[in-house]
Structure formats: structure tokens, C-alpha cells
Design a protein that fits this description.
heterotrimer, A alpha/beta (255), B mainly alpha (289), C mainly alpha (336), A: 255 residues, 2 domains, 6-stranded mixed β-sheet, 4-stranded antiparallel β-sheet, 23% strand, globular, B: two-stranded antiparallel ribbon
Chain lengths: 255, 289, 336
């Protein structure tokens, strides 16, 4: 097998006495959709934050196509191609939907020390941005202020921004959080269409979605990776069932 | 040489104590209410003027001091309820301009009531003499008294903050504001109390400074900026940080003025602040996590 | 950077232009109106308003567009003024400014003195920004204020240049081809300078740089997640703003032919913030409108009573507390 896209080795993150990430190791292969699941407080978001560079790990290594990025800044990692979406929507609320995405294109193309030319209507940025919006199904909302979008639409916009950055590794932190059933279905479809084209790490609570989408799944409990493998193997793993799946599926059914 | 150094160190300590009296109230207002109050220096000035008037009328310095503290606390409480309370949910910009408007008003009010000329507050008779600390070094007892009063107030404040229920709430609020409401406290009253307390401390500082410097309009501005520097160095919201930084600022400023050429002397404190912030952008003792 | 709830930004919408055209016509006519009224003093007031409008607009670039609440902007204005005045002082006293490592003579030549002044302000802004921008929120506010005070006290300590009292210049700078001593010529120069700067800000706001700066104000985390490190952009913004403030200072020194430490005092910085807040934060025409309103109100009250601050302070408070959108809100500049 070729070199993995992402290798996480013995990662630790302590907040005081609390171990949010505990000797965590996992690998993500090129082109796979790798889901990360685990009960609340298992440290999934903390892991995403460390992968994207928002948080510094206490110790351990994060290698991206062989390059150790564990101490690099967020901006540097984005330039290498690691792009994240936020669990809690994070947008420039006064800018139009299109400008939000166009900024991602602008940031990818190079530095922004250009002071005179109008960039707001420059097709160099708006054309790829419009494409990304169409892809997530927001094409018709391009000129609405991002703050005025409905919650589900803002989640879609998050995805469009991530796509416009042309990621080599896409970190999706609960892209379906707070969405209605219809909207979630749309996102699942979108992710299916992205699958194979992008390397994706997906944190998600919706087990149906995870098992429908994932090539491989890693299970986190108390910041430690207790199992990693194909969906069928994870479903059968007694340790996983013990720790997590049983109760959650019961929850899912009763809901 | 040692005598000069000791004298200047004591002067610096006295300035530091004065700065701390301002900074302690201000750092809590900044840390808990997140309020940028540029009018704190005006409370220092108003306190000095009230004390001057009462002292002139009654002949008693301590009566002036008490009256100034009480009256200024009241003014602080009124200002808080009338103006600043409306600003906690607004941006820093509005806070800056509203307090700037208050400074304009208070400065002019003082000009109308007391006239534009600087006043010299009389030295309280008990302390109107000097003590020989070292052979050849006579040091005014009044300045020693300021240091002592400042120390006593600091210790009282420390006890208040660490050993009482209200102090516990204040500390909780300074490190995490949402804590206060979780404790089921009437936030409105707590805020007003903190503000009034800070105003009283500012008035005490202003009153004690009166006999040394002159009582005049704008006297609060330079001490306000110096105490803001102390707050930034100490870490916003931290009383301990404010205390240590106020003494550092007071001593380095005073000693700098004596031993460094003019022009450089004025900027020593700022260079000191810049150096601290380059190493520790949130001050020496950050209160916020 | 701190979150300021009501900040709105202007990529100026059409209504701004709607007001701009008649406004510019009126501004062009001001010298004739003053002449017709036989009140040359008014022309001086008008020039002063335009210069303050320029200074407030420069502050608006960091404060409104960039969301960096700087409380020490008067210092950069004042540095511009002082450099012009100091260079002129050295010329008239026939003392070189520097003899080592190179000899620098004083000058009143605008082609030399003005770029020097603007450069000095930009450099000061760069240094202050480089340190202050390492911090955010309340710390940033306090530090910009403190550095401005440092520069203020430094100016006070310059005994050679009048110390606390400031110094009088013998005349305005010399600009080949223009007679700056003529008040009408000078007024038009100031007007052109202001309009050019506003046009520059207009372009800047929608340029790649402007989008990044405005994006950082709205959501710094988002910009980082896009791979944009805020610091170099903020520092550049701060420096440009300082240069523009220095230019305002150059014009101010020339208008008054006088500089003093009060030009760079804390109160002056607060006044600039007040003008922006009155006019409308982050909008293009807000700060000029605010400057006009502020100066005219001060002048009007000052004519009524010597104790005008007793009314002006509370009036300022009331306007800030109740008119949330500033004057541009009233004049109908809307955002897209």
C-alpha cells in the first residue's frame, strides 16, 4: 500500500489533569472516508482541532504525507491542504454567501496583499466559488448575507467553503449537526459524491450516516482509539459494542 | 548615593501605592464588567477636590478623607446606574466615548465649582515633619504615611477578596463572568458595589496625593494611564498582578526620572510594558483562563 | 479582536453616492460662500473639518474595517504635524536636524518634508502595531492608549521645540506651483487630499486586502481556518492607517502653523473615536460626517457659553447611547 495521507502517532492532549486525547494513534489512507465515532466527551472535536492546528498537542506526532505538522500553525496546514469545517458554524456573517466562499479561493491562490483591484466581483475568485456553491446546492443563495441563511444552509455553506479551498484532506466536524432529516439526507448524498475524490475525516453522531458512508471507522473512548477498521469489523467488535454502540443504537431507535 | 537611591525608592513606592489604589478598582471593573472606564481618573480628581473643600472647612484631614471616599463612592454608584450599566452589553467603543463624555463633564463641572487654578491642599499637621532615615536623609513622614495607608488598604482589600463571600464572588467573576450568575447573586448590586468601591479607593488616592502634588483639573489623567499600564502588566482582572505591577511601575518611573536623561525617562515605563507584553501578551498574572 | 455588536461595514452602496454628488458640489462652493458672507474664518473651520475628516477616516480603516479598537491614533496624526514643524524650525534657526551619520538640514519644502512626516507616522504605527497586535481585545485597547501617551510625554519633554507650550511655525510649507499661504488654495488642496483618501479607502474595502481585513474583524478563527494568518494583514492595515493619519497631521500643522503636545493627547484620540462613532463606524462617509457634526457642534456651543463641555459631554453620551447607527444611519447609507 502507498504512503497514508495522515498518520497520527501517540498523540496526547492534556487540559490540566484532564486527558482529552490519550495516546491516540490512527492512520487515514489516501482517498478514503474515515469516520471517527465515540460517545460524547470522547475527544473527537479535540482531535479535529489538533489535526487542523487550532490546538497544540501536548505530545505526539501528526504526519501529513510524511511531513510532521504537529507544531505547525493552522495557516501553514491549510496551505498544505488540511481544511476543516466547524461543528458550530463559523462564517463571516456580514459577507454574502458567495464572498465567504470566494475568500477561501482567494486564500488558496496566494497572499492577499492586493490593495486596489475590486476582488468582490472578480471572476477569478467568484467563478470557482459559485461552482462550490452549486455543488452543495446553495447556488441560488449566492448573494444573501451569510448571517441571514437558515441554519441548514449555513452548514452547507461551511462545506462549500471547505471544498473551495481544494483540500487534500477534509476534516468534517459533525457536518449534519442540528440539521433536519431532509437536509441531512442531502449532505449524505453530497458526501457520497465527494467520496473517492477527497480524503475525508468525518466526525459524526448519526450512526446510519456513518455506516453508509465510511470506508473505515475509528472508535474513540476517553481520548483513546480502541478500534479502527472497516464498518463490518467495527460493528462486530465486542469492545466497541461494549463501550459505545449498544447504548447509542438503542438511543437512535427510541428517538 | 545609597541615600538618594533609598529616597527615590520610597518615592516610587509611594507612587506605586497610589497607582494601586486606582488600579485595583479599575482592574476589577475591566475584568468583571469588561468596561473600559476612562472616567476613573476623574473620580480620583473629584475625590481630591471634595477632600480639599471639607478639609479647608473643618480643618480635619481625616474627615476630608472619609467624606471624599463616601461622596465619591456615591458618585461612582450613580454614574454606574445612570450610564455604565447600559453599556455592559455594548462595544468598547461606546464605553470609551461615554466615559470620555463623562470626563469632559466632570472636568468642566470642577472648573465651574472650584475655578481653573490649581489648589494646594494643606499638609495634615500630624505629618508635617521629616524623619532622618539615614544620616543626611530627611524623609517627609507624610509620604511614609501614604505608603502605610496604601499598605493597610491593600491588606484589607486582600482580606476582603480572599476571605469574604462578596470577595469570593468578585474573584469568581474576574476569572469567569458566567460564574456570578451561577452563584445566584444579584449581579446588578454586585456590579454597583464594585464600581462604588473602586471609586472610593480612587478618591482616597486622590486625597492623599493632594498635599504632595497640586489639586487640579486633569490631575487624574497621567495616573490613570500609569495605572492602566500597571493593569496591563499585571494582567486584567488580577488584584495581585495590579499590586505588584503598580509598585514596579511606580518605582521604575520615579527612579528613571532621577537617573535617566529627560526624554528617555518619560518612556521607561512604556518600554517596560512593551517588554512584558512581548514575553507575556496577557500580563504577568492573567486572571482569565 | 473584540466583537463590537453593531459594527457595520461599508462597501458603500448606491445611496452613499447619491449623497456624495451634492456634497462634493457644496464642498467645492464653500470658499465662494465664505467670501460672499465676508467670513474668511468659516473657510478655516471648513478646512479644519476636512482635515479632521481625513484623520477620522484613517482611524476608521483600523477601527471600522479592521475591528482594531485603537485608542492612540492622535499620536500618529501628531507625529506628522511635529515632523513638518520641526523641519521648519531647523530651517529657520539654521541648525541641522542631524549631523551624524549624515547631515540633514531643516526644510519647508513640501516635497521633502511631507513624505518624511508621513513616513515617520507610518514607521511609528508599524512599531506600535507590531507590539500591540500581539494582543487582542481589552489589552489591545490599553496598549495603543499607553503608547500614544508615551509619544505625548515624549513631545512634552522636547524643550527645544517648545515642550508643553508647543511651537509656532513661520509659515506654511512651500509647494512648487501652489501658493499654500492662500487660504482658498489651501482649502482646495485639503479637499482633494480628503477625496483621494476616501477613493482609496473605497477601493481598498473591496480589494483582496480589504476583504481579508474585514473578514478578520467578523471572524478571526474562520480566516485562520482558510489559511490566512491575521497578523501581517492587521499590521499592514495599521501602518497604512498611520501613514494616512500622518498626512492629516501634515495638513493640520500647515493649517494652524502651530503644533503642540495637545495635538497628540489622549483627548484628541478620544475625539477621533467620537467622530467615527457619531458618523457611523465602518462606513465610508460616516467619519467625515461625524467630524463635521462634532466640530460644528463644539463651535456652536462654544459661542453660547465658555462652559460648553457641561453640555457637550452629556450630549455626546446621549447620542452614543441612543443613536446606535450614527449619522449615516439617518442619511440612509445601507449595506448590501
Amino acid at each position: 500500500m502507498s504512503r497514508p495521507a495522515l498518520e497520527v502517532e501517540h498523540l496526547n492532549k492534556f487540559f490540566g489533569a484532564l486527558k482529552a486525547t490519550d495516546d491516540l494513534s490512527l492512520t487515514v489512507e489516501v482517498g478514503e472516508l474515515h469516520a471517527i465515532i465515540g460517545p460524547n466527551g470522547a475527544g473527537k472535536s479535540t482531535l479535529i482541532s489538533q489535526l487542523s492546528g487550532q490546538l497544540r498537542p501536548t505530545s505526539g506526532h501528526i504526519r501529513f504525507f510524511g511531513e510532521d505538522l504537529s507544531r505547525r500553525s493552522m495557516a501553514c496546514r491549510v496551505q498544505r491542504g488540511i481544511v476543516r469545517s466547524f461543528q458550530i458554524t463559523s462564517l463571516c456573517r456580514e459577507f454574502s454567501t458567495l464572498t465567504n466562499v470566494a475568500l477561501a479561493v482567494q486564500a488558496r491562490i496566494g497572499h492577499s496583499f492586493h490593495f486596489f483591484r475590486n476582488a468582490e466581483d472578480d471572476p477569478l475568485f467568484t467563478a470557482p466559488a459559485q461552482d462550490a456553491l452549486e455543488r452543495v446546492g446553495l447556488g441560488h443563495r449566492a448573494h444573501v448575507a451569510a448571517g441571514h441563511l437558515a441554519h441548514g444552509e449555513q452548514r452547507q455553506l461551511e462545506l462549500a467553503i471547505a471544498l473551495a479551498a481544494k483540500p487534500r484532506l477534509l476534516l468534517l466536524d459533525e457536518p449534519m449537526a442540528g440539521m433536519g432529516l431532509d437536509e441531512s439526507m442531502k449532505v449524505v448524498e453530497l458526501l457520497l459524491s465527494l467520496k473517492g475524490h477527497y480524503t475525508i475525516v468525518l466526525v459524526e453522531h448519526d450512526m446510519d450516516a456513518v455506516f453508509a458512508l465510511a470506508d473505515r471507522i475509528s472508535v474513540l473512548v476517553y481520548g483513546h482509539c480502541i478500534a479502527s477498521g472497516a464498518p463490518e469489523r467495527i460493528r462486530e467488535d465486542p469492545a466497541v459494542q461494549d463501550a459505545y454502540l449498544g447504548e447509542d443504537e438503542a438511543d437512535a431507535r427510541s428517538a | 548615593m545609597i541615600a538618594v537611591l533609598l529616597e527615590q525608592a520610597l518615592n516610587g513606592l509611594q507612587l506605586g501605592v497610589t497607582l494601586f489604589l486606582l488600579a485595583s478598582g479599575l482592574t476589577l471593573v475591566l475584568g468583571i464588567m469588561r468596561l473600559v472606564n476612562l472616567a476613573h481618573g476623574s473620580l480620583y480628581m473629584v475625590g481630591a477636590y471634595i477632600a480639599f473643600t471639607i478639609q479647608s472647612a473643618s480643618g480635619s484631614f481625616s474627615l476630608g478623607l472619609l467624606a471624599a471616599a463616601a461622596a465619591t463612592a456615591l458618585i461612582g454608584a450613580v454614574l454606574e446606574r445612570l450610564l455604565f450599566e447600559r453599556l455592559y452589553q455594548r462595544g468598547y467603543l461606546e464605553q470609551v466615548i461615554v466615559s470620555f463624555g463623562a470626563v469632559m463633564f466632570l472636568d468642566e463641572l470642577v472648573r465651574v465649582l472650584w475655578g481653573p487654578l490649581p489648589l494646594k491642599a494643606p499638609m495634615p499637621e500630624v505629618f508635617d515633619w521629616s524623619v532622618e532615615l539615614l544620616p543626611g536623609l530627611l524623609y517627609p513622614t507624610y509620604r511614609l504615611a501614604i505608603i502605610a495607608v496604601g499598605m493597610v488598604v491593600s491588606i484589607l482589600l486582600y482580606l476582603l477578596v480572599t476571605h469574604t463571600r462578596i470577595g469570593m464572588m468578585v474573584r469568581a467573576g474576574a476569572s469567569d463572568r458566567s460564574m456570578i450568575s451561577a452563584l445566584g447573586v444579584n449581579i446588578r448590586d454586585l456590579y454597583t458595589a464594585v464600581f462604588a468601591g473602586g471609586a472610593a479607593l480612587a478618591a482616597i488616592a486622590g486625597t492623599m496625593a493632594g498635599p504632595i502634588y497640586s489639586v487640579q483639573i486633569g490631575m487624574g489623567e497621567s495616573v490613570l494611564v500609569q495605572s492602566l499600564i500597571a493593569i496591563v502588566i499585571g494582567g486584567i482582572g488580577s488584584i495581585r498582578g495590579a499590586a505588584i505591577a503598580a509598585v514596579l511601575v511606580g518605582v521604575s518611573d520615579t527612579i528613571g526620572r532621577v537617573f535617566l536623561p529627560p526624554g528617555i525617562a518619560q518612556i521607561t515605563v512604556y518600554v517596560f510594558m512593551a517588554a512584558v507584553l512581548v514575553c507575556r501578551p496577557r500580563g504577568l498574572f492573567p486572571a482569565h483562563v | 479582536m473584540s466583537k463590537i455588536p453593531f459594527l457595520r461595514i461599508g462597501p458603500p452602496a448606491i445611496p452613499a453616492f447619491f449623497w456624495a454628488v451634492p456634497l462634493v458640489v457644496v464642498l467645492l462652493a464653500v470658499p465662494f460662500i465664505c467670501e460672499a458672507l465676508g467670513q474668511p474664518f468659516y473657510l478655516r473651520v471648513a478646512s479644519r473639518i476636512l482635515i479632521f475628516a481625513l484623520a477620522a477616516s484613517s482611524l476608521n480603516l483600523v477601527l471600522g474595517f479592521g475591528g482594531m479598537v485603537s485608542l492612540g491614533h492622535a499620536a500618529f496624526v501628531g507625529i506628522g504635524s511635529y515632523v513638518v514643524a520641526v523641519l521648519a524650525w531647523h530651517l529657520s534657526n539654521e541648525v541641522p536636524v542631524l549631523t551624524w551619520p549624515i547631515v540633514i538640514e531643516g526644510t519647508t519644502n513640501a516635497a521633502l518634508a511631507w513624505p518624511a512626516a508621513i513616513g515617520a507616522s507610518a514607521l511609528a504605527a508599524f512599531v506600535v502595531g507590531a507590539i500591540s497586535l500581539r494582543t487582542t481585545g481589552l489589552y489591545f485597547i490599553m496598549i495603543t492608549l499607553a503608547f500614544a501617551q508615551m509619544i505625548y510625554y515624549y513631545a512634552v519633554s522636547l524643550q527645544q521645540y517648545g515642550g508643553d507650550d508647543g511651537m509656532k511655525m513661520r509659515g506654511r510649507s512651500v509647494l512648487p506651483g501652489l501658493d499654500l499661504a492662500n487660504r482658498t488654495t489651501f482649502y482646495y488642496l485639503v479637499l482633494v487630499a480628503l477625496l483621494l483618501c476616501i477613493a482609496f479607502l473605497f477601493c481598498l474595502a473591496r480589494s483582496r486586502f480589504g476583504l481579508v481585513i474585514r473578514g478578520i474583524r467578523q471572524n478571526e478563527t474562520r480566516m485562520r481556518a482558510l489559511g490566512i494568518e491575521p497578523y501581517p494583514y492587521q499590521l499592514t492595515c495599521f501602518t497604512i492607517s498611520g501613514a494616512m493619519a500622518g498626512f492629516a497631521g501634515v495638513l493640520m500643522a500647515n493649517l494652524d502653523t502651530f503644533v503642540s503636545p495637545s495635538d497628540l493627547s489622549m483627548a484628541r484620540s478620544d475625539e477621533l473615536v467620537a467622530m467615527i462613532l457619531l458618523g457611523g463606524v465602518g462606513s465610508l462617509w460616516g467619519p467625515p460626517l461625524g467630524a463635521a457634526f462634532y466640530i460644528l457642534a463644539q463651535l456652536g456651543l462654544g459661542n453660547l457659553t465658555t462652559h460648553w463641555p457641561l453640555a457637550f459631554g452629556p450630549a455626546l453620551i446621549i447620542v452614543v447611547l441612543f443613536a446606535r447607527r450614527g449619522l449615516v444611519g439617518i442619511f440612509g447609507e445601507r449595506q448590501r
